[in-house]
Amino acid sequence: MFVPLERLLNLEEGYRQRFLIKGLPIVLMVIEGKHILFEDRCPHQGASLFQGALTSDSIRCPRHGFEFDVHTGKAVNANCPELKLLNPAYERDRIGIDL
């Protein structure tokens, strides 16, 4: 089942928004023209990553400073489980996720 999140015309560089879908917090970002979706929970202790510092390749957890590659989910500076990335789905003029 497709769950729409945003209209494609609103997805400009730097876009960042948090959504709650069936109890799952997710973040949608646009980084270097790519649509990035991930679960808004640091794999270390579950802190929100929404306000984390962002580079073109990684996001830093504001609670403990752990960094995760936004393209692969792998931890950059810690021995930690991977960030759960989600696959974006597209339907007409919208981006969303398939549940």
Automatic annotation (TrEMBL):
Domain of life: Bacteria
Keywords: 2Fe-2S, Dioxygenase, Iron, Iron-sulfur, Metal-binding, Oxidoreductase
Domain Rieske: 1-97
GO MF annotation: an example: metal ion binding
PROSITE patterns recorded: RIESKE (PS51296)
Keyword Oxidoreductase part of the UniProt annotation: yes
Pfam families reported for this sequence: Rieske
Entry protein name: Ferredoxin subunit of nitrite reductase or a ring-hydroxylating dioxygenase
